[in-house]
Amino acid sequence: MPMGTEFISTVPIATATTGLPVWEVAFIALTTMLVGVAIGVLAVRYGARSLVHKAKDHAQSVVDKAQAESQAITKQAQIDGQHAADAHRVKVEAELAQSRQDLKRDQQRLDKREDGLESKAADLDQARRDHESQVAALQTRRSELDALAAQVEARDAQITATLSEVSGLSQDEARDQFMVRVEEASQEEATTLRRTMLEAAEHDAKKDSREITLMAIQRFAGEHVAESTLRSVKITSEDMKGRVIGREGRNIRAIERATGADVLVDDTPGVISVSCFDPIRRAIAGEALQRLVDDGRVHPSRIEEIVEATKAAVEERIKEAGEAAVVECSIRGLHPKIAEAMGKLHFRTSYGQNVLRHSVEVASLSQVIADQLGLDGALARRCGFLHDIGKAMDHEVEGGHPAIGMEFARRYGEKDEAVLNAIGGHHGDIDATTPYTPIVMAADALSGARPGARRESMEHYVQRLRQLEGLATENPSVREAYAVQAGREVRVIVDSGKCSDNDAFTLAEKIAVRVEEEMTFPGEIKVTVLRETRAEATAR
Q1: Nearest one of 337, 344, 356 to 413, comparing CA atoms
Q2: How many domains does the structure of the chain reveal?
Q3: Cα distance between residue 243 and residue 246, in whole Å
Q4: Residues 466 and 422 in one domain
């Protein structure tokens, strides 16, 4: 309280100045403090009463305001509720009206359906009556037919007896003769029908195969290098022949010992020949001899040095050729030994056709054929590329190149059964277990049969033509047979009195089957049977 505090603070000053005793000063100060406290209490009470009155007045005004707002809200809610009730009533009345209309329409549809059912019931009754009348008519007709059948049977028995009496044959004998004639006629018709169907099927098959073959050929056209088993080396002078031979033939013996090939020196001017069954050794010997001739220094130590260098160069070329062929055919995952073996085929020829280029061509043709048939073209390309790999080592290992190649491929990680079967079975040595083997066989024959791809010896060619004509003339009805078009077709002339048209068709098939079974040939051979009837007359 400020007043008491101010009063107390002035007491010492008064005491000092008035000189009153201390207890009097304390009494005065206490009295003054009590009076100040009483005045303060009275002031606080008065202020509190004033605040209470103000709070009551404020509360009363808030209550009054709240009551007024509550009445306004209640009134507004009553108005809104009335509006909502009116809107809901209108909505419900509209829905009821729509429901009444829907019920009315449904009732109309039901009435129409009921009328339709009554009409259908009447139609069914009429149909039932019509059916009953038709059944009665059919029963009457059946009775008439039974009577007529009895008459026909009696008439047939009478005719049969008359025929038997006239012809002198019993019924069984007549039936047998009739069946023989029917069988002959049926066989004739069956042969004609079979020929027609086979001609149509053959036409379609040839058309499809021709399209596939032409597409395969158009998609791939490779260059082919023909090399013989004899390699010639040109020399600049006859003096070089003597230097190659050496004293008492020591240089030739050194070359033959280092390369494993035979060196042939004869009277042919300007040429020394190298002969070897192994194409790799033949290539090494030919290139080494050419280097010696170009260098001019020919003696045993130089020969060994040149041969070793040539071997390294040829081996590098083998690897490069194999890798290039693998890249060209887009073959993945091949063992390096397999790629190297394929590179060796660059120095191998078959009927004058380079085997590596032949393998690349067969790979491409196999892919095209497989794609046309809806098979895996990449797998077919792999089968075709590796089918002749056995030729890279068939001069070193006993057996045919299909079996050697299949075992070699399996040894170096080739696990796909389709590839192994194509390698081992592309010449029919084993049965084909996948469709890719006959595809490779077809591509192999196509590559070999291409004009100019292979060269055939005259002796083998004449032998094949004679065998073809001999197979055709073994039939007794054949008069003559001629192999034409370089053995691609055989024309057979038959005796018209011993062979009918249908027999000629059957004979052509038989000859074709025997040619397929007993002969080996590239491509296909056409069998043409000619039947001619000649009528002669002389006018005098």
Answers
A1: 337
A2: 4
A3: 5
A4: no
- The helix/strand/coil state of 393 is coil
Cα 171 off chain centre by = 65
Q: Model's pTM, two decimal places?
A: 0.44
Residues 75 and 11 in one domain: yes
- Summarised one tens digit per residue, pLDDT across range 93-110 is 888 889 889 888 888 888
Question: Residue 109 domain-assigned?
Answer: yes
Residue 225 lies in a domain: no
String of DSSP letters for 81-127: HHHHHHHHHHHHHHHHHHHHHHHHHHHHHHHHHHHHHHHHHHHHHHH
Q: Give the mean pLDDT of 111-128.
A: 86
Beta strands per DSSP E along 326-423: 349-350, 353-354
Between CA 116 and CA 108 the distance in angstroms is 12
Q: Are 33 and 4 in contact (CB under 8 A)?
A: yes
Q: Is residue 170 over pLDDT 60?
A: yes
Helix, strand, coil % over all residues of the chain, rounded to 5: 70, 5, 20
| Residue whose tokens read 């001739």 | 293
Give the 3-state secondary structure of 5-73: HHHHHCHHHHHHHHCCCHHHHHHHHHHHHHHHHHHHHHHHHHHHHHHHHHHHHHHHHHHHHHHHHHHHH
Q: Which of 241, 212, 185, 132 is nearest to 377 (CA)?
A: 212
Q: How far is CA 501 from CA 60, 164, 495, in A?
A: 134, 36, 11
Q: What is the pLDDT of residue 14?
A: 44
- Residue where the block lists tokens 């007045």: 57
CA distance 304 to 286: 14
Same domain, 18 and 141: yes
Contact residues for 431 (Cβ-Cβ < 8 A; gap 6+):
425
Q: What is the CATH number of the domain that holds 479?
A: 3.30.300.20
Owning domain of residue 287: 230-449
- Interval 281-285 mean pLDDT: 82
What is the rounded distance in angstroms from the CA atom of residue 112 to the CA atom of residue 95?
26
| pLDDT greater than 60 at residue 19 | no
The candidate with the shortest Cα–Cα distance to 331, out of 389, 403, 287, is 389
- For residues 260 and 409, membership in a common domain is answered with yes
R_g over Cα of the chain: 60
